[in-house]
Every structure is written in structure tokens, then in C-alpha cells.
Amino acid sequence: xxxxxxxxxxxxxxxxxxxxxxxxxxxxxxxxxxxxxxxxxxxxxxxxxxxxxxxxxxxxxxxxxxxxxxxxxxxxxxxxxxxxxxxxxxxxxxxxxxxxxxxxxxxxxxxxxxxxxxxxxxxxxxxxxxxxxxxxxxxxxxxxxxxxxxxxxxxxxxxxxxxxxxxxxxxxxxxxxxxxxxxxxxxxxxxxxxxxxxxxxxxxxxxxxxxxxxxxxxxxxxxxxxxxxxxxxxxxxxxxxxxxxxxxxxxxxxxxxxxxxxxxxxxxxxxxxxxxxxxxxxxxxxxxxxxxxxxxxxxxxxxxxxxxxxxxxxxxxxxxxxxxxxxxxxxxxxxxxxxxxxxxxxxxxxxxxxxxxxxxxxxxxxxxxxxxxxxxxxxxxxxxxxxxxxxxxxxxxxxxxxxxxxxxxxxxxxxxxxxxxxxxxxxxxxxxxxxxxxxxxxxxxxxxxxxxxxxxxxxxxxxxxxxxxxxxxxxxxxxxxxxxxxxxxxxxxxxxxxxxxxxxxxxxxxxxxxxxxxxxxxxxxxxxxxxxxxxxxxxxxxxxxxxxxxxxxxxxxxxxxxxxxxxxxxxxxxxxxxxxxxxxxxxxxxxxxxxxxxxxxxxxxxxxxxxxxxxxxxxxxxxxxxxxxxxxxxxxxxxxxxxxxxxxxxxxxxxxxxxxxxxxxxxxxxxxxxxxxxxxxxxxxxxxxxxxxxxxxxxxxxxxxxxxxxxxxxxxxxxxxxxxxxxxxxxxxxxxxxxxxxxxxxxxxxxxxxxxxxxx
Length: 760
Prior knowledge:
Layout: H1 7-29, E1 37-38, E2 41-42, H2 43-71, H3 79-112, H4 117-138, H5 144-149, H6 156-167, H7 170-183, E3 187-188, E4 191-192, H8 195-218, H9 224-232, H10 236-268, H11 272-322, H12 327-330, H13 332-346, H14 349-370, H15 372-389, H16 396-408, H17 413-430, H18 452-476, H19 480-485, H20 492-510, H21 513-528, H22 538-543, E5 550-552, E6 566-568, H23 572-575, H24 577-580, H25 585-619, H26 626-652, H27 658-682, H28 688-708, H29 711-716, H30 734-751
Antiparallel strand pairs: 1-2, 3-4, 5-6
């Protein structure tokens, strides 16, 4: 497939991959043994949240420098002209960023002078959307190379910035800090995760840099399915890869459009569905008109909106609590305070009273579920009898409440069974210490030296952490919309630099997300819990209008908010951080604009990938003739528009949480693409039959495991038990899909007739 490489090249790969493995899986596996404090930090927590990320950056940067120096400059590349063009980009881009900052500062001053909040939100959000739209209109094109790969002239610095925006989707910006708030180091029960997201989503770039991106760029392709056509030949490798790209990207884009609707509806006050359509217009202006050329520069601008929106609240909270705005360096002090607060809450009699009440509610629902039809009928008759007993002189408020309770009852037995089962699970979870949350700094549930049940819990928790991290890392190396970004650089050397810049820009947010989770948790535990219900801050009432974001109730009737009585959704922590920290409203608008930028930037790249896969790879099957160029671009735009509308409809149904949908797409990407792709790059013996078998096997196994472990599917098929293999949660289904795909690719390649390898 490519020329024989010097031995030292593979030695460098092997050494860096071994370091990557030890720093990620080795440290995670022995995390419980890395106890102790260094400079006030728990060693295991610091290394998982920050140390591993710094090592990953060092690996990618070192690989780029050494390999680029060894290969030397490209003889056909005009480096001088490229540097001059890059300097012009610096000036133009700097003016745009300064303009956005000027608008932000102007609105901050206007807020102090009394400008209404609605005007502040409208002006800033409109200003950012206008900037994105201008770039989209300015970058409009019908030329294939410009539409698909931005003419292959994007500097690595700016491509890294655009990649970071494309990468840091609504999941990273909106949900990551919230997921870390809820899951701590490693999650609990059916919620594995925590710092696995930080390590998985950053460590995956080592695989992109060492195993994938430079080799794909060398081929001069337009899409990821192009690689399978060039490397393996024939129609089916391209078709399967294209359809897999659609499945992966569609799952991902639904989460982004969900985030668009969430933010737009929150800021403008319109219905969630209308918010989706409003935000979708901003997506289509860039991706529909200008393709990759417009999307690249839009995403570079969106990156700075996002990073400012994230760093300002976390820096303010850090300064407020610790007197130091550099949150990633300072928040270790709060970890020890949170541990003390957690121990106090676990032993608090009022908290135990709330937990006991949740246990009673769960028991009551379990009894109802024994005979759902009879329980539903009895409850309906009871409410009607109470309403009739009140007579014509009934108190209006109480009567209306009874009518609302009657109307809220499940309409039939199936709905009642689903709702009561879901509530019973929720109450059982909240009937645990800390409302079901794991201690924040504890690596893995259970106890490796405890009872057999505790040892099993520990092993299961650690295995799920490692499995999720593996799926996120391998999935990163297979995401089509990410890999396509590295087709836009002018040379292979610039691609390597671009991967390094991508990880550096991403690290600014990923190193701050654990800090925000800790600072918000301390704010809640130390200053919110224990307050009378009638003295709670106004922001709680505003955000509790959406129960999926925030809910609280006086479960034990003492008039005091207990930690177990408060339920925070993962999407709230970031979006409400300015209000939690007492920042001006203009910062709340900036955070909303940042979340919108995160969702829009990723949705742009994903919709472009889907449209290109359907038009370029499925309909035109990679035909690169000039006569077909304009038609290909036109059909790509049409496919993009149709898919955007379908994704908006699915997102309006609120199918699942943002973080879950995104993590699931990584499992799908890793299983569908990575085994056949990496073997195709490094193993000349990989064949067309092997690639087809590997992609189909990986995809089928992953989808099957995800579906068969959905509660609705198991109930419909009357399946008993949890259906888990080795206790691994369905979000990490890719670990089975990747293994099955790898085995199938190797096995079928060995028994099939090899095709002539294609040069890379």
C-alpha cells in the first residue's frame, strides 16, 4: 500500500503508542493505587484530569516535529507564498475576533447603564449569527475542491482551530462539565464515565496523528469512503463506508440540533421546536452555500466564541472561591473540601430522612407494578371520589389540583407500566447516599479489598471506565467529519501540525471542564444546600421550568433544601454557571452564544459529511470528472438540506441525552471504520472481502448490543435480565464491535484472494 518505511519510523510509532497506552489504560487501571496528595492534589484525579492530557499533547507534538524534520519539505510546495497567505489570514481573523470582543464589552457597559436583557441577548446572538452568515455567503462556491476540501490550502493552525470547534460539540461545551458534576471520577451504576470522557476524547488524537490522518491526506481524497474505494477497489467498500458515515454522523448531529433547540429556546423564549428551526437556519447558511471552505472559517470564529464563553465563567468562579482566576491550577483545593462535605451529607439525619422517603416511593411503585391495570383503575377511582366528595363548594385551588392529578394519570396500562418503571428506577437511584452520586474523587465503585459484592462492583466499575475510554479513543480515529478536516491542509506535514494544534486548542476547554464541575459542586454543597426553600435564588425557579434540567421539592417537609432533594441535569451546569456565580447577564448571553456556536460548528461538519457521503460516494460513486463537478456539489447541497430537516424532526422528539448520543456515535464510528482503515493503511494483506466483512460485522454487533439493551426493546421482546456482556454498558458497545470487526477483517483477508495493493 505504501513504500517500505525505515525501521526507525515504526520504532517511533511503537514507542509513542506504548507511552500512550501506559498513560491512559495503565494509569486508569491502577488509579485506586495512586493515592496520596501532591501540592494539594489527589494524584490519581490530577493525572486523569490533566496529566494524561499533557502527555497526549507531548506525544502528538513530538511525532509531528520529528517526522516532519525527517521527511523534509515538499518539493512542490511554495512555503514562502504559504507563509505570506497565512499572515494575511492572521490579520483578517484578528479583526473579526476583536470585533466580537468589542461588541461584548459594549453590551457589558450598556447593561450597567440599564439596557434590557432582551436587547442584550438579541444584539449579541444576532451579531454572532450575522458574522457566521457573512462568512457563509462570502465563501459560497460550486467548485468541487473548494466545496469538499476548501481547496486544500488551510494552514494547520487555523485548521486545528476549526477542528477544535468541530470537535467540541454541544456534548463537550454543554454536557461535559455536567457529566463530570454527576459522575465524578468514574461514574456509578449504569452511568460509567466521568474522567473517561476527558482521557478518551483527548487520547484519541494520538491515534489520529500516528495511525490515520497523515496517510489519508497523502492520497488527496475528498471523503473517508474515498479511502476504502482507493485502497480496496470495487463498489461495496465505498458503499458500506458511505452508509456507515451517514449512520454515525446522523446520530451525532441529532445531539447537536437538540443542543441548538435547547439554547435558542432558552434565550429567545420560543418553543423548543421553533428554537431548533431557528438555529438550523444558521447551520445551513454556511454548510449549504460554501461547503468546507465556508465551514472552516466559520468554525475558526466559533472556536473563540466558545472558548471565551467557557473560560470566563470558570475563571470567575475560581476567583470568587479561591482568589485565583486560573481555575485548572487552583481547583484542587476544593476537591478536599468537597470530600468533607460529602461525608457530612452522608451522615446528615435530614439527608437520611429524604433517602428513606425515596425508598418508600420506590417500594410503592413496585407494588403498583405487580398489577398495573388494577392499580391504575384504583388510583383513578380514588381521585374521582375525592373530587366528588368536595361537592359544589369545593375550594378552587384544591379541586383544580385534583383535576390536574387526574389528567396526569397514565392513559393506559402500557404507558403506566413504562412511567412507573422509570420512576421506580429513579427513586431507587435517589434513595442512595448523595442522591445516587458517586463520591467525586473516588476511582470506581466498590472496594477491591471488601466483600465479594464490593469486589465485583469495583471490577465492573473499572471495566466500564476502561471500555468507555477505549470506545471514545478508537471512535475518535474513525469519525468521518473529523478525518475529513485533515484533507484541507496543503501538505502531509501541515496535517501533522494541524492534529497537534487541534489537541492544543481542545485542551483549553477539556482541562477546564473538570474545574467547572468541581467549582459548581462546591457552590451547591456549601452555599445552596441547607437554604430555606423560600430563600432559594431566582435562577433556580427559572431553570426548573424544564424538569430535565433542574428539579427540586421538599420531600421530607422540613422547608430546607437537602442535597438529595435537588436533581440537576448534565446540561444545566455549564448553561447556568454565570447565574450560579452571580455574573452579569451579558456573560449568560455569551455562554448561550458559545453553546450555540459549539452545536452549530459540529452540525455544520456533520451535515456536510452526510451530504457528501450520499451525493459524492453513493450517487456519483466518487466520479471526479470536471463535467460532473457542479452536479455533485448541487446534489450534496440537496442531500444536506433533506438530512438537516430529518435530523431536526428526530431531535424535536428528544430521543436521549446529548452526552449519550454523542458517546454512542463514537462506538459506531470505531467499530465501522477503524479496523478496516488501519489494517488497510499498515497491512498490505488486507483484502476487499476482509474490509467488507469487518465493517459489516463491527457495525452489526455494535448496533445489536445498543438496541438489545434498551429498556423499551427488552420489554417489547419480553427479554429478562440486563442483557449485558461482561457487565459493560451499551454506550460502550463499540468495544465488542471493534474486536469483532478486527477479527472479521483479518480472518476474511487471510482466506480470500488478495487484490493488488493501492499506494498510499
